[in-house]
Design goal:
The chain is α+β, with helices and mostly antiparallel strands. It contains two helices and seven strands. The relative contact order is 0.19.
Length: 108
């Protein structure tokens, strides 16, 4: 959890809105993002890292990618474009995927 929080808070700049649990037991941290919540958990026997994570919309895709690269964040899928948005997939320290994307004008 400490490694994951270092990425989500220290690199991505998210602020936890709920933190529960004990360091050697089950832990749960939530971050409110726009109209949703991004949550990370650890310690439960059936919780395992997933490469099918969630997505986060950013205001400036290029700046976000430069920032992530500058912090040595691992990319699961390098930046690419679709007709609707620009996106890339990163991995947190435990292998959970997170899609970083920005919609193109007219697709918001």
């Amino acid at each position: 959890m400490a490694r994951a929080r270092a990425l989500y808070e220290g690199v991505l700049g998210l602020t936890p809105t709920m933190v529960e649990g004990e360091p050697d037991g089950m832990q749960w941290t939530e971050y409110d993002i726009a109209n949703g919540t991004l949550s990370i958990g650890s310690g439960a026997p059936d919780w395992a890292p997933s490469s099918t994570g969630c997505s986060v919309e950013v205001e400036d895709f290029g700046d976000a990618i430069d920032h992530l690269r500058g912090h040595g964040v691992a990319f699961h899928m390098e930046p690419f474009e679709t007709p609707v948005c620009r996106m890339a997939f990163i991995l947190d320290p435990d292998g959970n995927a997170l899609c970083i994307h920005q919609r193109k004008p007219g697709h918001g």
